[in-house]
Amino acid sequence: MKRIGVLTSGGDAPGMNAAVRAVVRYGIYYDMEVYGIKRGYEGLIEGDVERLYRRSVGDILQRGGTILKTARSAHFPTEEGMEKAYKTLNDLKIEDLIVIGGNGSLTGAKVFSEKYGIGVMGLPGTIDNDLAYTDYTIGFDTAINTVLDAITRIRDTSSSHERTSIIEVMGRHCGDIALYSGITGGAECVLLPEIDGDLDEVYRKVAEGIGSGKLHNIIIKAEGVGIETDELIKMLRERTDRDVKLIVLSYLQRGGSPSFRDRMLATQCGMRAVELLKNGIENRAIGERDGHIVDFDIAEALEMTRGIDYDLYKGVDVLSM
Ligand code: F6P
To answer: Which DSSP string corresponds to 261-274?
Structure first.
């Protein structure tokens, strides 16, 4: 009877539970024993593992977060940490490990696999959308919808007070949350870590909006941007006659019931992971390309790069004229 493990690692993301559910139920369907590892790699090191059954993943599809809990582990990348992690799997005779997480988590899985020969599967679980091998990561769609809801609410009050609102979003070093929410939320400006910010350009855009009669201005600022928010606020307050407010969405973007798209992506990635393992295929990173579920060699997947979509970036400017 094949034994597989599943863990969630790094920042949690809406849809992780849907992926865990698919892994467990498809694993049981293919006569595997599925073991849930708590708190990511920390739990693996500590042996915090429990057998999961079909009822273990009941009533979680719609829930954000992860029933397995998650963590960022500084211990795992160390020799001692990986040794302990390997011992946990070896003692339980777990042959393969499914890791649901972001860039760092999947990279850890690859290194672990190369060092100990454990089969791994990587599922892209992060709101950041910063894994280039897949068009979308699990959690990104829900996070975007959360930001769009916030933008809609902020537009109301910004119009009432004729204010400029700066909305800071997550994404670590990736600007996709800012870019995609900016263009679909009708922002005048998006500030992205991938593109050097220009205070004069921001001023021009806001001044143009005020001059054309806009009742409010919305600027979406990704957290990884080099411009200091205080400097941006000061500049706008000095050079325009509008008050400026900052709204940091922070962890709101990490919670909430997963959207249809995230539930679908998560479920299909979980299904694919188990089916590949059933067929003796391992060390793959699973994701979506052009609407289809795909899998790549995990090392090759993690080498892939993807820049910002400059057509969308330009679209923000044109569409907010
Ligand atoms: O990786 C997801 C993410 O939400 C990033 O966008 C953000 O910078 C980071 O996690 C925050 O990390 P933590 O939850 O450890 O504070």
So the answer is: HHHHHHHHHHHHHH
Asked if the model's pLDDT at residue 236 lies above 90, the reply is: yes
Beta bridge partners of 55: none
Calculate how far, in angstroms, residue 1's C-alpha sits from the geometric centre of ligand 1. 37
Q: Cα of 183 to ligand 1 centre, how many Å? A: 23
Supply angle C-alpha 128, 97, 17, rounded to 5.
Answer: 50
253 CA from centroid of ligand 1 (Å): 10
**Do 3-139+258-303 and 140-255 have matching folds?**
yes
Class of domain 3-139+258-303: alpha beta
* Cβ atoms < 10 Å from Cβ of 92: 16
- Domains of the chain by residue range: 3-139+258-303, 140-255
Query: Is position 128 annotated as part of the catalytic site?
Result: yes
From the CA of 171, give the closest atom in ligand 1.
Answer: 6
Predicted model pTM:
0.97
* pLDDT band at residue 224 using 50, 70 and 90 as cut-offs: confident
CATH of domain 140-255: 3.40.50.460
Question: Beta 33-37 vs 49-52: how paired, if at all?
Answer: antiparallel
Single out the catalytic residue among 128, 135, 141, 262: 128
**Which residues approach ligand 1 with their CB closer than 6 A?**
10-11, 72, 102, 126-128, 170-172, 223, 254
